[in-house]
Each structure stands twice: as C-alpha cells, then as structure tokens.
Amino acid sequence: MVVLGAAYEVGKLERYVAQFLIDRGIDILIPTMAECNQLSSGVRHRDRFWCVGGVTVSRVSRAKGNEAPMVYVVGLDRVAEGESNPQLRNQLAVALTRSIGWVRVSGVGNYPLYAEFDRAIRSGETLNLTFDRPPSKPMERTEMGELVRRYAPGRESLAGADLTGAQLGGMDLRNADLIGTQLVGADLGGAILDGAKLAIANLTGANLMGASLKGAKLVGAILTNARLKKS
User: Fold this and answer.
1) How does pLDDT run across 20-67, given as a tens digit for each residue?
2) Topology (CATH) of 2-122
3) Which residues of 19-34 are buried (b: 16+ CB within 10 A; e: fewer)?
C-alpha cells in the first residue's frame, strides 16, 4: 500500500492505515521498521521494505524503486485537494507505477480530479496530459542573495537545488554544499567557490570567469560549454 499527501500529514495517514490493518489481523510492515507490525522503533533497517506474509504500508518516497503485483494507493483526496500542485501529482504518478499488475486507488470526497482520473482510466492506451504552468518569474539578484544566506554553511545545504540561470556573480560560496545542484547557465563570474562541493553538479554553459575554485570538489561535475578563467 502506498499513501499520498503532503509531508506534514502523510506520516499520520501511514500510521492510521497500518493500525487499521493490524486491528483486522493483517500483518504489516512500515519500511525501515525492525519487525512486522511496528509503528515506531528505535532501531531502523534502512533497506528493509518487505515482511514475509505481510502488507507493506509505505510513503511514496520509500516506495521508489520497489514494485509489487498488486498495489493499493490510499489518499487520492490528498492530491485532489491540491490538484494544481505538481509535486502531489508526481506522488500519484510514482505510486501508480509501483504496480506491475493491478492497482486500486481510493479517496474520499468529491473533487474535479476524480473525473480527470476516470477519463484517464477510460482512455485505454491513449492519454493526453496538459499542465498549465504559470509563467516563471526570473529570480532577482537580491532574492538569490537571500537564498544563499538562508542556506549558509552550518545550516542547510544547496545540494540538489535548481539554480538554473541564477545570478551568483561575486558571491561568497566557499565550502558551500552544491552536490548535484543544477547550475545550468548560471553566472558565477568572480564568485568565491573555494572548498565548495560541486560533485556531479550540472554547470553546463555556466560562467565561471574569474571564479576562485581553490580546493573545490568537482568530481563528476558537468562542465560542458562552461566558461572558465584562463590559466
């Protein structure tokens, strides 16, 4: 079973579904729990996803990479309440594709998304998807500066962030965690990147002219067409 919903509420639904099944004599496993039928545990097994003879009750984030012949998806209403949220829709897509055979989806209430879902089921092998993305607003230098300060060293990292086209010229980013960050076409001219972790970061077309990269970790970084300072 895969449960849907925003991060602050999906844990509650996961435990509710698990307890519901336990009360009816059905063994369950919440991924990473040490034993079957545990709702919490001080000991965690990071790679444990299955319980022999039991039903796995999982959030989407933990279900990725796992498949089963039959999957029950619970909480369609959580997606329907925020149907314009691409992250919630992505949850639904991932949950549906965990099945290699059959999937059942449940949700309460009455939402426009249910009609859309019904049309998708009836469409057979042909499905047209339309997503009206609002026009993107270029991030101003002041906003980007605030973002970088907010994720200053010692707090959170910028690892994996999407900073495509960001204007970071001249900024102090020494020792910043930028592992896997999207910096396609970003302006890093004159930026201080000493000791920065740029492993597997995408710097395609980025401007690095005059940037200081002393001790920067660039293992696996993509530097296609990046503009680098001359040696």
Assistant:
1) 999 999 999 999 998 999 998 778 888 899 999 999 999 998 898 899
2) Rossmann fold (3.40.50)
3) eebbeeeeebbbbbbe
Contact status, residue 173 vs residue 148, Cβ threshold 8 Å: yes
Distant-in-sequence contacts of 107-115, Cβ < 8 A, 24+ apart: 107/74, 107/75, 107/76, 107/77, 107/78, 107/79, 107/80, 108/77, 109/77, 109/80, 111/77, 111/80, 111/81, 111/83, 112/80, 112/83, 113/76, 113/79, 113/80, 113/83, 114/76, 114/80
Class of 137-231 per CATH?
A: mainly beta
Give me the residue spans of the domains in the chain.
2-122, 137-231
Evaluate the CA torsion angle 40, 43, 49, 54 in order and state its sign.
negative
Measuring CA to CA, which residue among 192, 197, 187 is closest to residue 144?
187
Distance, in Å, from the CA atom of 60 to the CA atom of 129, rounded to the nearest integer, reads 22
The reported pTM is 0.56
Q: What is the pLDDT of residues 127-170, one digit of tens each?
A: 665 655 555 555 455 555 556 655 554 445 677 778 888 888 88
